[in-house]
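Lab manual, section 2.4: Encoding a predicted structure.

Procedure: take the sequence of the chain (600 residues), apply the prediction step described in section 2.3, and record the output as structure tokens. A sample record is shown.
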Amino acid sequence: MPIKRECIERIKEMADLYDIVSGYVQLKRSGVNWKGLSPFTVEKTPSFFIHPEKKFFKCFSTGYAGDIFRFLELKENFSFLEAVEWLAKRYGIGIEYENDQSPKNYSKNELFDIHEDAAAYYQKKFKEDETIQRYWTETRHFSLDMAKRYGIGWAPNFDQGLLALFKRKKYTSEALQQCGLLCWNERDKRFFLRFSGRLMIPIYDVQDRIIAFSGRIIENQSNGAKYINSSETPIFRKGTVLFGLNHARRVVSDYFILVEGPLDVFRCWENGLDTAVAPQGTGITEMQMNLLRRYVPKVLCFMDGDGAGQKCAQRVVELAFKTSMECQIATLDAADDPDSLLLKKGKKGFEQLKRESMIQFLIRTLLPRERETTAIEKETFLEKIYGMIHGCDSEVTRGTYLEELTHRLNLDRNAILNDFHNFCGDMKFVPSPVSVSKVDKNFSQKTEKLRTAEYDLLSLILHHEALGPKIVEVINERWIRDNGHGHLLLKVLGEIRENMWEGPQGDSVAFTPEEINELFSILALDSEVEDPIAITNVCLRSICTAFAKDQLVEINQRELVRRKSIKNENSLDDVNFFQSLQNERMRLRRLLFSCPKIEA
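Recorded output:
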């Protein structure tokens, strides 16, 4: 049974790292620290240090670093829980195990393990059932290779094998009640399966961990909703997860494609549209749009052509205004959806679709087309649009949308501007200033190690816990170089975003042992800065501008290559290509002058 986190912290506080380590190696004073020969290797010159105040150790000869639990894991080959129990016994501290049904009654690792086992079980059942395989290949028109690649499974009707598997694995009752795959019958005091007679599609977080399942109905074999998802759990919240983002974020460069469901996503991927993602059975949420925006600020809405699909697209457009996302809408015939269109026409059919701007789409769907619009209808429509435009955080962006509105409705420009300012109460957008008066110039000079903005930002997050969520809100992860400390920073930000960051704990599954060593090594260093907010903003600006400049260089190179290959200067493809490059240049130049900041 899992141990309470508060109990683990109490054991860590009461246990003496010097006392434990001195049983393995002789230690001598070195200023405020202790040093000695490495307990992990043979050496002649001491390279092992203990920082009593921080309760960390660092071994420079092996690179190992960590707290008292990690020392015992490395030296005695203990698991994390074994190290906790050993220390509790040594210091006479009572262990408090979780025994109620709150979401924190168990390790989140146990939930991940449950989902891995469930995925393997469902996949095994899929492979054993020829009827379900024929449904996948003949009715859904996907290959068995795709089923294998994306972990498609099958939850048979009235099958108790999964429950038996969980029992053999000895998962805690609390974890099983909270995993989202089972339901608890209070009267009979037993579990029953949430999924039965459904195609099982695993849902991953951005760290590539299975956190839930989407179960799709099999025609003629099941009743109920087309899709049902796992219930919400400590590792799965529908409104903060996008299906397929773990895959799409790695390949996106221009825009995400937003579709309705998992099978639409698979159809897109099958046709080379690898940036497709989908919300989790509910309408798109603001948090999901902000999540996309961290990678690229542009989305193509590729929803069903029927009325329900159009309503979904309207919701996407409303949130695009609010989150400062650029959005286009691919228009499908009423009888079409992404799956059927791509099956019939493939990627070429997708590329031939007409794309509308947000203003153009709203005019088409919110104003009557079969007759002349009345003055009241037009006024109501404009007020709705003004409300969306007012949510934008840039005067330039607002002005652009108002100009398009004027042009498409053939209205007087001054009248539109006056109406808009009256609607907004004549409020002006004024960015909140962040004081950067005192920047600690020694911050990047505290060690001889080569420092980067990514390293400094990581150090700030580790030493000032409250900064992490603020940084996650404003940073676009595409700006961070995915190498060195940038890769580690991306992982930490991912854990913070998923509400799973508890520091570099010994029981973490998100980091490799080498990464845990590095995190503890950074924590062991001093980070006394006068103004952490100001330093954070300096780092954000450095990362942001470096990305923008690199992208501008790349755009110039692409333009040069294209111009050398031009045969017909009036080619529509070339004109569109250069226009798109210019639009991207303008966006990047705006980024150079409007890097994000956090506030106190």
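Check your result against the sample. DSSP finds 24 helices and 16 strands in the chain.
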